[in-house]
Amino acid sequence: MSKNLTKDEIAVRTQVEEKLKGAADNISPPKHLNARQKKIFNYVVEELHVSGILGNLDVYILGTFAIAIDRLQNIEKLINKDIEKLLDKDLMRAKEKYTKDFFRCCTELSLSPQSRAKLGNINFQVKAKEDDPLLKVLAGGKK
Q1: CA-to-CA distance for 86 and 95, rounded, in angstroms?
Q2: How far is 60 from 65, CA to CA, in rounded Å?
Q3: What are 53-73's pLDDT values in tens digits?
């Protein structure tokens, strides 16, 4: 947000976001995923664990993400084995579909470098405002 928030507003907003995120105690791959897809799922969960952005409700988007990556990799293997597969309209349509799924999931899960940079910048700005002695004094606090 570009709007300056007070500490109380930030606290309320954080609390609401945490409630909406839900619990994060059961982030496990759906049973319908194959072994490769589960491996992809678990890798992403492990990498994002530190960020604290995932919740139990994210298993569905993570599942779609794992499927899209797995299918894209399989399509690329087929193309690498036989470059003529680039002329296969059905295969290329499937590749386009899974690429769209992949990028949509990246956006939803904040997996793009741009999304992560935005999140980092927001967190930095909030921390800088909390630590700014002048803002503390102006807000009625002490140095």
Answers
A1: 10
A2: 9
A3: 888 889 999 999 999 999 999
49 torsion bin: left (phi>0), alpha (psi -120 to 50), beta (else) = alpha
**The dihedral sign for the CA sequence 95, 97, 100, 104:** negative
* Interatomic CA distance for residues 76 and 89, integer angstroms: 14
Where does the chain have alpha helices with state H? 7-21, 35-48, 59-81, 89-108, 113-131, 133-138
Per the CB < 8 A criterion, the answer to whether 109 and 62 are in contact is: yes
Instruction: Classify 118 as helix, strand or coil.
Output: helix
Name the DSSP class of 9: H
pLDDT of residue 35: 98
